[in-house]
């Protein structure tokens, strides 16, 4: 199985003519693909904590133009895809996704512009609802920051090739670049590279991480169960919580 980015590459010349955001996808046919199959690790707190390491300066992509694809394991979508390009003073990224039920790609949902360290300006598709505006803006920028954090601090890249038997239909559409990068995310390495945040978060001592709700990049809300983390040999941290409420 190859990344679905190759399918979008095959369709992108027609997409550029039909979409009001088509100009953002110039040169996509030859852009290298970085594929993240483990969505849970990609969306993890450990990867989110690495973001501070790349936000202090201008973003630097691994190539002048690159495709980041995250495999979506949810029932509604099968792929989240960002096409990012490096300019002298900024990075620009365009976000699309593939609908699993209809097996179709959306129009460009978000155009993100990264000009200042740690900040991004989002230009959303005018037909989006108010709820979708915030969601897709966060997804688009999050994919860029998370992908770059992983590649810099917690990723292992394995080069894979599109089989010769599959290349014909793509080559006819102008697609180039038959080697793509499958990225494995090392969460242990991500934890080791996290910057101290102060308080108990900076301590490697044993403590209990309470259960909490996590919002995934595709908009889902999942509950993360309570767990024990840290090294007991270095001591422990016990927290007491006071829950206030009215009597029945």
Q: Count of DSSP E strands?
A: 14
Radius of gyration: 20 Å
Q: Count the domains.
A: 2
Oligomer: single chain
Number of helices: 6
Structure description:
- 25% of the residues lie in helices and 31% in strands.
- It has 248 residues and is α+β, with helices and mostly antiparallel strands.
- The chain folds into 2 domains: 5-193, no CATH class; 199-236, no CATH class.
- Strands 1, 2, 3, 4, 5, 6, 7, 8 and 9 form a 9-stranded mixed beta sheet that branches. Strands 13-10-14 form a 3-stranded mixed beta sheet, with no helix packed on it. A two-stranded antiparallel ribbon has the order 11-12.
- Strand 4 and strand 5 form a beta hairpin.
- The chain starts with a helix and ends in a 12-residue tail after the last strand.
């Amino acid at each position: 199985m190859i990344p679905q980015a190759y399918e979008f590459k095959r369709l992108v010349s027609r997409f550029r003519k039909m979409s009001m955001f088509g100009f953002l996808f110039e040169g996509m046919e030859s852009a290298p693909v970085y594929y993240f199959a483990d969505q849970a690790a990609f969306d993890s707190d450990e990867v989110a904590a690495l973001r501070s390491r790349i936000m202090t300066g201008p973003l630097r992509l691994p190539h002048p133009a690159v495709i980041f694809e995250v495999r979506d394991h949810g029932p509604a979508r099968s792929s989240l895809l960002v096409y990012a390009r490096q300019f002298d003073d900024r990075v620009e990224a365009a976000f699309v996704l593939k609908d699993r039920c209809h097996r179709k790609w959306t129009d460009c949902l978000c155009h993100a512009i990264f000009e200042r360290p740690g900040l991004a300006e989002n230009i959303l598709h005018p037909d989006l609802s108010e709820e979708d505006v915030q969601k897709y803006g966060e997804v688009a920028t999050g994919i860029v920051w998370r992908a770059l954090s992983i590649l810099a601090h917690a990723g292992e890249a394995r080069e894979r090739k599109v089989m010769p038997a599959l290349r014909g239909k793509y080559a006819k559409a102008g697609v180039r670049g038959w080697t793509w990068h499958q990225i494995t995310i090392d969460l242990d390495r991500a934890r080791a590279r996290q910057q101290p945040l102060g308080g108990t978060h900076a301590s490697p001592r044993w403590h209990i991480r309470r259960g909490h709700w996590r919002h995934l990049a595709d908009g889902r809300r999942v509950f993360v169960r309570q767990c024990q983390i840290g090294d007991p040999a270095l001591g422990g941290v016990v927290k007491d919580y006071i829950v206030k409420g009215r009597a029945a």
